[in-house]
Design goal:
Strand content: 35-45%
Number of helices: 5
Number of strands: 7
Radius of gyration: 15 Å
Structural class: alpha+beta
Shape: globular
Largest sheet: 7 strands, mixed
Order of helices and strands: EHHHEEEHEHEE
């Protein structure tokens, strides 16, 4: 099995992240993406905002030391949320599950929330495998799909000890 890890996102990673986030198949799966995934200026502005947010942490997912995606935790509407994006070359090998487990271990606050397009069965499976449970379904316009898409909101509650 490959070694999966998280390391801090650096300026040197931004080209790889931009390319990953404009892959048409990945954009269709994620659905709730940038309006124009090919707009580098918009990507750079979005990235700068996220990297400077005091309550956010962003990581690169590595597989045997190589780039395999991104992961982040941030606050939205008073809730802590996690997000991840696995590069297509790393799909189907447990990279997302391992990365989410690492991220959840680094973030002590509970509950944690996550959102996923309902048609993204692989990401739904990752969240459920790590212990997230569905709490809500919302239909909203998804730029990556160009239409309304059902989004599932998941939560990871505190454990009872």
């Amino acid at each position: 099995m490959a070694h999966i890890d998280l390391r801090d996102l650096s300026d040197d990673d931004l080209d790889a992240v931009f390319e990953m986030m404009r892959d048409p198949e990945a954009v269709a799966m994620a659905a709730f993406t940038a309006s124009d995934p090919d707009d580098r200026a918009a990507f750079d502005a979005w990235s700068d905002r996220n990297r400077q947010a005091p309550d956010a942490a962003q990581w690169v997912i590595t597989e045997d030391g190589g780039f395999a995606g991104t992961a982040a935790v941030f606050s939205l509407d008073g809730h802590r949320e996690v997000t991840y994006w696995v590069a297509r070359h790393a799909w189907g090998r447990g990279v997302g599950t391992a990365a989410l487990r690492l991220m959840v271990a680094r973030e002590a606050e509970r509950p944690l929330y996550a959102r996923v397009a309902a048609h993204n069965a692989a990401s739904v499976a990752v969240l459920e495998r790590v212990g997230f449970t569905e709490v809500e379904r919302i239909t909203a316009f998804a730029p990556g799909a160009g239409r309304d898409v059902e989004e599932i909101v998941y939560t990871l509650m505190p454990t009872l000890e």
